[in-house]
Amino acid sequence: MKLYGSTTSPYVRKARVLIHEKNMPVEFIVEDPWVEDSPIIIKNPLSKVPALEIGTDSYMFESVLVVHYLDHADGKSFTPRDPAGYWQSQWWQALGQGIIDAGITRVFETRRPEEKQMPEKMAREEQRIARAIDLAEKTMKEGSEFLLGNRFGLADIVMGVAMQYTDFRYTHDWRSRAPKLAKWLAGVAARPSFEETLPPGFVKVA
Ligand SMILES: N[C@@H](CCC(=O)N[C@@H](CS)C(=O)NCC(=O)O)C(=O)O
Questions:
Q1: Among residues 31, 113, 134, 169, which one has the fewest Cβ atoms lying within 10 Å of its Cβ?
Q2: Is the pLDDT of residue 29 over 80?
Q3: 70 touches 15 (CB < 8 A)
């Protein structure tokens, strides 16, 4: 299999962390969706990364589906099997994906010419992120190493990527408001799968 994507995309990074954790033989090929005539459109008509080649001229796209496919490709799923754990994992992944979506929307707004930027749009995305962080903090168990039980899983991957993307593109002090989340993130971020997929230019927050 081959994974196409950019080194800064949090959507791509979710898949890269999972591939690293599972030690899967998936080649990572850097492809920029933003350049003129990007070859990504051959793999994904929506022209977005990630795209996962699963066979000749056969691709999966949309990170949720790509991650789902990778999670089930080798019979060693990172999703809990019991119904409660399964849905809790989906819940955390939805929260993480929402934080990523909000972070991406916000950063694109900051990149528009200043006179075209809409501060209220940025504030709306920032409020989404703040509420999601508050709910994560409220939901997390005190002192737990992982989000679900005693096993690292997809919930940790998606939320970990989401929080590091927040640190990367919307650097602000959320840690003083969410100490449990901050402690959990420090543990997850120290894993080789996270260390080795950091976006270029990422500055670690203590
Ligand atoms: N919902 C998609 C979002 C993917 C996405 O927006 N990727 C960005 C990179 S961070 C992209 O390829 N953007 C290119 C574009 O919007 O033209 C997913 O989860 O895979």
A1: 113
A2: yes
A3: yes
Task: Determine the structural domain holding residue 59 and report its residue range.
Answer: 2-73
Q: How far apart are the CA of 11 and the centre of ligand 1, in A?
A: 7
How do beta strands 2-5 and 51-55 pair? antiparallel
Nearest CA among 30, 5, 201, 9 for reference residue 103: 9
One domain for residues 55 and 147: no
Over residues 135-148, mean pLDDT: 95
Q: Is 204 a member of any domain?
A: no
Query: 91-112 pLDDT, tens per residue?
Result: 999 999 999 999 999 999 999 9
Paired with 28 in beta bridges are 3
- The secondary structure element, H or E, covering residue 79 is none
Please state at what angle helix 119-139 crosses helix 83-111, rounded to 10 degrees: 160
How far is the centre of ligand 1, averaged over its atoms, from the C-alpha of 192 (Å)? Answer: 25
By alpha-carbon position, which residue is closest to atom 9 of ligand 1? 9
**Mutation test residue for ligand 1: of 48, 63, 67, the one with most atoms within 8 Å of CB:** 48
Q: What is the CATH number of the domain that holds 137?
A: 1.20.1050.10
